[in-house]
Hints:
- This protein is α/β, with parallel strands linked by helices and 126 residues long.
- It has helices spanning 2-8, 16-21, 29-37, 59-69; strands spanning 13-15, 42-44, 74-75, 80-82, 85-88, 97-100, 104-109, 120-125.
- The strands form 3 sheets. Strands 1-2-3 form a 3-stranded parallel beta sheet. A 3-stranded antiparallel beta sheet has the order 4-5-6, with no helix packed on it.
- Helix 3 (29-37) packs across helix 4 (59-69).
Amino acid sequence: MAKAFAKLQLTAVCHAGVRLLSPEPPTSSVEVIDRLAAAEVVIVDLDLLFWRPWLALDPIGVLRAVSRRRPATLFAWPGTITGNHTTYSSPGRRDWFDASLSDAVVLRPTAATFPDEPPYSLERHA
């Protein structure tokens, strides 16, 4: 879905892993936010946000901060979103993440029959 959305927006897909690890890994959450806010508006490969103890980031907080600095950014969540609940990885693992969504918009891929139809449905979580 990220590639299709980027194509609709006439932009490229940014791989967060490449953006965050090159030329050097960031040393603070502020630097993570700065680098992602300077990226393209479609960001995938967010797995680095869950690495612990690296920077002990709050992934949702990072995405929210980036969105505030650069509205209309689309993030491809690497985990599961069910209703207003999101997870990443599995319980007991160091990268396990579990949170409720608020003030978020989730796009779900859908089949589009005609070129003028959006290839997604929209869910708002207040």
